Batch of 3 targets.
Target 1
Amino acid sequence: MRAQLATTLDNLGTDYLDIYFLHSSDFGPDDRYLPDAVDLMSKWRSQGVIRAVGMRAPHQFAEEWATADGPEGAETRRWLYLFDRVRPDVVTARYNLISRLYGDHETDIFRFARRNGVGILIKQVFGKGLLLQSGSGPDQRQYSAADHRSTDPAFTPDHRHRVDARLAPLRDRYGHSTSAMVRLCVQYALHHAPDAAILAGFRNANQIDAIIAALDHPLLADDITQIRAVLHGNPYTD
Ligand SMILES: NC(=O)c1ccc[n+]([C@@H]2O[C@H](COP(=O)([O-])OP(=O)(O)OC[C@H]3O[C@@H](n4cnc5c(N)ncnc54)[C@H](OP(=O)(O)O)[C@@H]3O)[C@@H](O)[C@H]2O)c1
């Protein structure tokens, strides 16, 4: 961890990080390295080398699942255990148009974070770009072997085609341009969690411009209701 932090600071040409994210949940046999890792992050934070500790949340999470049998319950219990040990300042959560919806009886990651006084950084608002391939046809985009999406099952031509078809009614309603879909993605997430920050990925200046422009055009509650009805067949009651 020390060597990696030093390399990161060097690569970025900075002497501190706003957020230090703990991605791994593997701390060796019997979590042998967990206490030292937690102590080290705490020390860095008090020294100001990092300003906050972050931790990734499971892609799907409801606190109540912790009492369930099976892999979902085990994953939830493990994550809650680590959360209690690490006590992060921020968690990252995947949230986008096609994310699972949670019922009022479920404590999703957003409710959980609020209750614990922890910030949320939303990632994958564009589904790593999957949600922005509007109408381009399933086979047009090729990913190089160096791009992690080349082996991601969500990016097989078949799955891309299915997502494309699912989003078609939204394009008919909100516009066929990529900017229109960027706006939907960004504002759908911000509407759900106005107290969260979005970590939006971009590849070039045009993409940044589209993301910034999207911030000026919020969605209304009625839009969210309709988007959810189209994509999930589920009315929105926030
Ligand atoms: N997902 C994770 O678990 C994770 C973990 C650690 C760090 N990160 C970092 O977090 C950032 C966000 O990544 P993410 O995985 O959450 O992905 P994301 O933000 O859902 O999607 C980012 C992708 O969306 C596409 N995009 C963005 N704006 C666009 C526009 N205006 N027009 C067309 N395409 C546009 C780009 O795809 P193209 O590349 O195809 O142009 C971009 O790479 C990235 O810097 C990533 O490295 C992510």
Target 2
Amino acid sequence: MKAIGVDDAFIDRLVETFYGRVLAHPDLGPVFDARLSGRWPEHMEKMKSFWSAVAFRSGAYGGKPVQAHTGVSNLTPDLFPKWLALFAATLDDIAPSPEAKAWFMATAERIAKSLTLSLFYNPALDDPAKKTG
Ligand code: HEM
């Protein structure tokens, strides 16, 4: 991680910059703020320890991401591509290296996919009897 420019200072900056943009985003902002109003500082700390735990395998984060998202009102599957696009744009602006951007994107995409499956997976959509093509 050091070799590609990722350290705690960068993670702080990434989280601050990204959630600043999330809040200003017309679709993402209201969904986050409805849940986190009055609790933003805690969320920012949590996200810093989350990314730091993933990047440095530090064990600093002990939360449960799937549970944390289950009660978020108006969280719909179409918001995930928007989240990822905003994260990519943020990394384009501030990532210390192309490798750092690639690592953060690959990790976020994997987690987004896994969250989407846990939150929205509907076995009926995979029913072969209902497949048209
Ligand atoms: C549109 C997509 C997303 C929305 C609207 C969303 C929204 C939220 C909200 C509102 C919370 C705060 C929950 C609470 O404390 O009450 C939260 C927590 C969190 N989110 Fe997301 N999120 C999204 C995508 C993601 C993705 C892609 C990741 C992973 C890279 C992620 C990682 C986390 C983590 C680690 C927490 C903290 C969980 C805990 O409490 O330990 N989220 N998210």
Target 3
Amino acid sequence: MAVTYVDHMGSDLAVVNAARASFAQVSEELSDKDVGLIGFLMRERHASPFEHASMTVFVDAPIGVAREWMRHRTQSFNEFSTRYAKVGEPTFYVPPPEALRTQVGKPGAYHFEPLDEAQAEAVREKFEAAYRASLDAYHELLEQGVARELARNVLPLGMHTRFYATANLRNWLNFLSLRTAENALKEIRDEAAQVEALIEQHFPHSYRFWVEYGRGSL
Ligand SMILES: Cc1cc2nc3c(=O)[nH]c(=O)nc-3n(C[C@H](O)[C@H](O)[C@H](O)COP(=O)(O)OP(=O)(O)OC[C@H]3O[C@@H](n4cnc5c(N)ncnc54)[C@H](O)[C@@H]3O)c2cc1C
């Protein structure tokens, strides 16, 4: 599972200049006053200036994680198609030992605990066997002449997919707010942490104030 930087547009300066459009002013370089303005915008949840900078990443994730990711309607996506291309040598998500967990408690009020170490290897083998069986069935169906768009139905949620995701800074911060939270799925949290490092790198002042004012949605 990995998030790879592709491109970005704008910077903290783009946020400042969008905000200063109200006064028909433009900054060429970020001054201390401009940095203060970013803090003000973040504190007051004056969100639209943060929509003038954006970032694109390339994501490699299990389909189940991608489904959660793509609930973020304000992002733009392009994904590898199992309808048009034959699945070559797919990667499947076998949870590493530290991610193996059991669910304790009632729906809506449960928490996770590490799975008994004695069970771990058998559980990982079960994942691998199920993936092998699905992939074998997929290849057999293709050999029998079944169309790719039908044969793919036997492939599992744990198979990795790859997609481009683009969002503006405001919506990346919303994504991070939701997907780095303690109650988010561990696997999407791990990927969101990689997005967060890129946001910090490319939009350091906006990021810093977002953290300072509580990592909320704008
Ligand atoms: C821990 C967790 C558990 C979840 N569990 C479930 C679940 O069980 N079932 C389920 O279906 N989903 C679930 N979701 C998905 C969740 O409901 C959201 O769809 C998802 O997090 C995307 O968030 P978003 O709408 O803020 O993002 P985006 O779609 O990117 O939207 C960004 C913002 O734009 C605005 N917006 C976008 N579209 C609309 C609209 N149509 N109307 C009004 N405002 C809009 C909102 O302000 C929104 O916050 C879960 C999410 C999390 C984080």
